[in-house]
Amino acid sequence: MSAELLENLNPEQSDAVTHHDGPLLILAGPGSGKTRVITRRVAWLLHNGIHPSRILAITFTNKAAQEMRDRVEALVPQAKVHISTFHAFGARLLREYGSHFGQERNFTVYDMDDREKLLKIAIEDAGLAPSASNVNSFGAAISKAKNQLITPELFENSVHDYFTQCAAKVFPRYQKRLRESNACDFDDLLYVPALALQKDKDLRSQLDNRWHYTLVDEYQDTNKAQYAIARELNLDHPNICVVGDPDQSIYRFRGSDIRNILDFERDYPAARVIKLGENYRSTRNILAVADALITHNTERKPKPLVTNNQEGKPVRITLHESGDQEAESVAQKIADAVEAKRWFYRDFAVFVRTNALTRSLESAFIQARVPFQIVKGLAFFERKENKDILAYLRLMSNPRDDVAYLRIVNEPARNIGKKTLDTLAQFATAKGMSLLEASRRASLVAGLRPGAVKALVDFSRMMDDLRSQIDQPPASAVTSVLDKSGYRKALSESGLSEDQERLANIEEMITVAAQYAATTPEANIQGFLENVALSSSIDGYNKDQDCVSVMTLHAAKGLEFPVVFMVAMEEGILPSAFALPSGQGDMTNSKEIEEERRLAFVGMTRAMKELYLSHCQERSFRGVTRYALPSRFLAELARARASIETVDRQAPRQRISHDYENEPDPHEWFGEGNEPGTKPPRPVSHSAPAFPGSPSFVKKRVPEPIKIPTGPSLLAADPTHTPRVSPPAFKEGNTVRHQTYGIGLVMELSGMGALRKIKIRFQTAGIRSFILDKAQLELVVKGRS
DNA sequence: TGGATAGATTTTTTT
DNA sequence: AATCTATCCA
Q1: Which helix H or strand E contains A687, and what residues bound it?
Q2: Span CA (A415) to C1' (B2), Å
Q3: Does the active-site annotation cover A248?
Q4: What pairing do the DSSP bridges indicate for beta strands A239-244 and A183-185?
Q5: Cβ atoms within 10 A of the Cβ of A728, count?
Q6: CA atoms of A575 and A593, how far apart (whole Å)
Q7: Contact A412/A392 with Cβ under 8 angstroms?
């Protein structure tokens, strides 16, 4: 039986799987079979008589946790090992043991949105004025502090400038508001249990004794709070096995500290260290390139990448003219390869540094008819209607959740306006009540209109009624909310097709809730809410669908694909402008650059057979086009030049027109200039140096479009322009065709003149809005007028 | 109170 | 370029 567990393992992997007691550090390079080793190790422990309830396995994402659960289950059926993310584990500790330190069991997990709302209130509590930027920076400072287990008191002691002084005022007030709302933000899920474990010795030893074997994956990405939790649970039974790769540490911005893995041997002197060096994933060429890159990191123990794999194709570096062409080229290449039956769509992945870069890829794929999925946060739960319904569920499960209350108290409209709520909030704060509790006693609040009192009391009665059904399954709870809140009524009566769609989305959520209940033993509303709150972007990734995957480099961690494209390898993008000396980062710039380099390394080492890196001459961002310099990382690959081929896909240079700046090409703003030879020539020599020079963008010298009178007669009188038919007057309800997104329905028109906007719901691409003058739209069917 | 419009804002990455 | 937000008006 146990021989099966050691099948297809090399000696090091086998050692790691069968290591018995004591701390174990597994340094696992990319593609070295790390996941296989962890799952086999869990199975091996079970086979050696360790009770499943004694084993705790921590992964980085829910997806990884689910995969590991499935794999362990396949090896050892019925094994009930606790496998979860750090955050889910923290939430579980809080629910089970929170009463030891005053945390209620039914707390709500606040997402970024909720956090922001509560933070605004806390900033006001501190006598400051919330603004978009300070909410952000206070939020970041507080989050950073909690990740490092810095309490408000400690924070206060380290105040060193005006900003931290203000943050020190906001921090305790924010925590107080969280506790009053019986809520935890993401950071609290680690911070609160970590502090509790450090403070409460009895609790600590009780929990240490509960899990005798701990496994932590992606250990290089743990922050101080996560480190502390792992540490405190492994003092009496130090059978802790951590797996990671310092070269793949990419979450510094979230407080992760690479020292946790580098210092493991210091923290656990008895530690055994096993290195999994052989790479089974990538070709020799891909590894040569990845190795050439990562060697440039200085704060690193040298670690060669070795493989017995074939040499494979050279890694290709392509220079394109523009971001759009780059995207088109990627789409075309994929379409061709699938056409030639060399690969399936699902074999391809495109990695980007920032989510914004997915836009041009999206339209290129649509035009090339290449099926794709953008692996992003679950947009489904971000929809307003779904967030509203979730807020009802939250208020049902936690009546003190003021953020949820504020979200839905007037949704659907109940004539409860801002003034009423301000008065109510004042009362609630003074009495130390939740808003829902205060609503119940609205008649005691001075200064409320009788109508307002009634509306508030009615709302609180409705919520009390819903709360009495807190034990029903999540799916039927959604239905109850829909009916009792009047939400369904409001949507179905509105007559807008948009609202029908909303209703359909909520129906979809009933399905999601039912699915959750079907796969979870002790399903309840609270668990459903937690599941939603802690779901991550990669959880939406579906590897069974035959389509190209587009995702950020961060989301790519832990995955592998036969063919990988990494686009926009440009200074300011990868490495990000934030990591550059001129950027906004702190003084530790080289640390930031090193992390960007690791990010590039993670991307490259996802590739099994083919790797394509590209950058372009110019890139449009937020409506401005600039020259882009090739990423310094491309230059750093020089050592592996034998494994690289470079391609220049720019159009042949045009002759320089002496005064093109004063004679802008009319095609520029009529959007017809796609035929070769009609583009204005670009300045050649005095612009971008060929390879990394100054790490900043050079502004492109694009002729400023001259304002042209838009009257038809004037246009016709101008001999350089063909008369232009005035754009069709679109109306709401029209069916239109967009050049990229295809057929859609006009939902809304707004604004005037050049800025007139149109909002369209597409059959496939969802709802989007455009500037009417710029979008290329064609009327297909006139709707009813 | 909501709707429309003009004006400001985008700050990498995410549990 | 597109989206979010503050402000004005019906």
Answers
A1: none
A2: 12
A3: yes
A4: unpaired
A5: 12
A6: 7
A7: no
Cα atoms in the Cβ-side hemisphere of radius 13 Å centred on A643: 25
CA distance A413 to A420: 13
Chain A residues 575 to 634 with C-beta below 7 Å from nucleic strand C:
622-623
DSSP class of A637: G
State how far the Cα of A625 lies from the Cα of A585, in Å rounded to an integer. Answer: 24
CA dihedral sign of residues A415, A419, A422, A426: negative
Q: Which residues, in sequence order, are bridge partners of residue A645?
A: A316
What pairing do the DSSP bridges indicate for beta strands A766-771 and A757-762? antiparallel
Structure tokens at A722: 């063909």
Residue A742 phi, psi (nearest 5): 85, -150
**Pairing of β A272-276 and β A239-244:** unpaired
Q: Is A552 a catalytic residue?
A: no
Alpha-carbon dihedral A357, A593, A320, A673, rounded to 10 degrees: 50
Nucleotide C1, nearest residue via CA and C1': A623
* Cβ-contact A598, A250 below 8 angstroms: yes
CB count, 10 Å around CB of A357? 23
User: With 80 as the cut, is the pLDDT of residue A760 above it?
Assistant: no
Listed as ranges, the nucleotides of chain C within 7 A of a protein C-beta are 1-3, 5-6
The catalytic position among A218, A245, A328, A636 is A218
Range A245-273 burial, b when 16+ CB lie within 10 A, else e: bbbbbbbbeebbbbbbbbebeebbeebbe
Model pLDDT, residue A729: 60
Q: C-alpha angle with apex A19: A13 to A22, nearest 5 degrees?
A: 135
- pLDDT tens per residue, range A726-755: 344 666 667 777 666 666 777 665 554 444
Question: CA A548 to CA A567: how far, in whole Å?
Answer: 14
Least confident of A284-288, A357-361, A427-431, A746-750: A746-750
More confident residue, A45 or A697: A45
Determine the distance between A751 (CA) and C10 (C1') in angstroms: 17
Q: In which order are the strands placed within the sheet that holds A735-738? A: A766-771, A757-762, A742-750, A735-738, A777-781
Count CB atoms within 10 A of the CB of residue A467.
14
Annotated active-site residue A301? The verdict is: no
Sequential DSSP letters for A168-189: HHHHHHHHHHHHHTTEEETTHH
Amino acid at A104: E
- The pLDDT value recorded for residue A1 is 52
- Let me know if A384 is a catalytic residue: no
CB neighbour class for A322 (10 Å; exposed up to 12, middle 13-18, buried from 19):
middle
Q: What CA–CA distance (Å, rounded) separates A111 from A446?
A: 34
Task: Please confirm whether the linkage preceding A666 is cis (ω < 30° from 0).
Answer: no
Q: Read off the pLDDT of residues A153-166 as tens digits, 9 standing for 90 and up.
A: 999 998 888 888 98
Check if A610 is active-site.
no
Q: What is the CA radius of gyration of chain A?
A: 29
> Alpha-carbon distance A522 to A526, whole Å?
10
Query: What is the per-residue burial (b if ≥16 Cβ within 10 Å, else e) of A49-82?
Result: ebeeebbbbbbbbbbbbebbbebbbebbeebebb
